[in-house]
């Protein structure tokens, strides 16, 4: 299928490739940051959970 003049004129393939790879890279770093944050917060949340589990039965006394 033959490309039209407008298609050749308006689609900048190298620019599209750069934008796609930039977004892939950004997504990868965001995912890594999320995993690091989740790993850092997990011990804190488990400690809080255990604290509240210990505290709840003692509140009724």
Brief rundown of the structure:
The protein has 61 residues and is mostly helical.
Primary descriptors:
mainly alpha; 61 residues; single chain
Provide an overview of this structure:
The protein is mostly helical and 61 residues long. The protein has one domain (5-59). The protein is built from two helices and no strands. The longest helix is centred in the middle third of the chain and has 47 residues, at 13-59. The protein is rod-shaped. The model has no long low-confidence stretch (mean pLDDT 81).
Counted by DSSP, the helix tally is: 2
Instruction: Tell me the overall shape.
Output: rod-shaped
Q: State the helical fraction.
A: over 70%
Structural class category: mainly alpha
Total domain units: 1
Q: List unreliable stretches of 5+ residues.
A: none
Q: Determine the strand fraction and express it as a percent band.
A: under 5%
Distance between the termini: 81 Å
């Amino acid at each position: 299928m033959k490309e039209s003049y407008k298609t050749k004129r308006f689609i900048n393939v190298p620019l599209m490739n750069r934008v796609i790879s930039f977004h892939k890279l950004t997504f990868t770093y965001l995912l890594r940051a999320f995993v690091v944050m989740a790993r850092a917060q997990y011990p804190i949340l488990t400690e809080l959970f255990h604290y509240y589990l210990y505290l709840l039965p003692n509140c009724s006394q």
